[in-house]
Structures are given as C-alpha cells and as structure tokens.
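From the shared-data thread, chain only:
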Amino acid sequence: MVRLNRIYTRTGDDGTTGLADGTRLPKDSARIAAVGTVDEANAAIGVAALHAAGETHLMLRRIQNDLFDLGADLATPGEPEGWTALRVVAAQVERLEAEIDRMNAELPSLASFILPGGTALAAHLHVARTVVRRAERDTVRLAAEGPVNPLARQYLNRLSDHLFVLARHANAGAGTPDILWVPAANR
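Structure, as tokens:
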C-alpha cells in the first residue's frame, strides 16, 4: 500500500517528475501528459459521482480506482527489474463492456446525435467523457514514442463509450429525454 507522509518533496522544482521506476522526465513529456490527463478524467468523474447514487455511484467509484491503476500503468514504461508493474488487465475492459451492454439494452436506439446535457449527472458525465477522450489521444501519442500497455488504450476507448451510455442512462432514469441534435436548426 502507498504511504504518503510528505506531500511536497521539492524534487519537481526543476521541472521534472518521477516515474514509478524512479526515472525522471520533464513535466511536459508525452508520458506525464498522458498520466496527467488520466488524473484529470478521474477528477471529472469524481464530480459526476457527487450527483450519482446506488449502482451508478458504485460504477463511478470502481472506474476511479481503475484510473489510478491506469495512471500507475502509464507511469511504468517497460517491465521494471525486481518487481511487477501494475497493469490494466482485460477483465477491467470486459467489465466496462458488460456494463455498457446492460445499460444500453435498457435505452431506446438513437436516431440522432445527442447534445451533452439533460440532468446534472448526465452533463458531468459528458464532461468526463470528453476528458477521457483527450486522455486516450494523449496515450495514443505516447504509444508512438514508447511502450504503452495496449489494454490501457483499450480501457480509455471503452470508458468514453461507457460514460456516454451512462449519461443517457442517467437521463432515462430521471425521466429526462436526451437532447437531440437538430442539424442546421439555427440557420
């Protein structure tokens, strides 16, 4: 278990930050950008969770924990010698897929794109979804430069779908219709 006795270490004052294996990278590197955007997505999901209850709240908390796993995965390039790196595994992706399928089965088919909104929970889930999409783009960019667990990318891709369906599910559960896009409505 992680133990943090001190919050500031001053080691990052030079513009670098440490990876799980002790390597230091510039704070604007692709790897640190990806880890940071995953952290930002986690925070956005935390805000959404404030508006959630029951199973939805539990799903969001599980996802937040998964995102810490994913951040640790991205912060550990390659396979460190002498210890096993924490990696996102297929079961985490499969759980998202099962939840998507279950929620989506309860929703009407889409006949139009939808606009983010509806309930407060749905609106926050859409914000989180867009941050997850950015985390995915950052992770793809990182993979072009160095090692990345392909399941980390898969998890982010599936998570954005999950948050989209969860936002629709939140609206439906509250009796609030999705806001449909009307092409050229304001011309």
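The chain has a mean pLDDT of 92.
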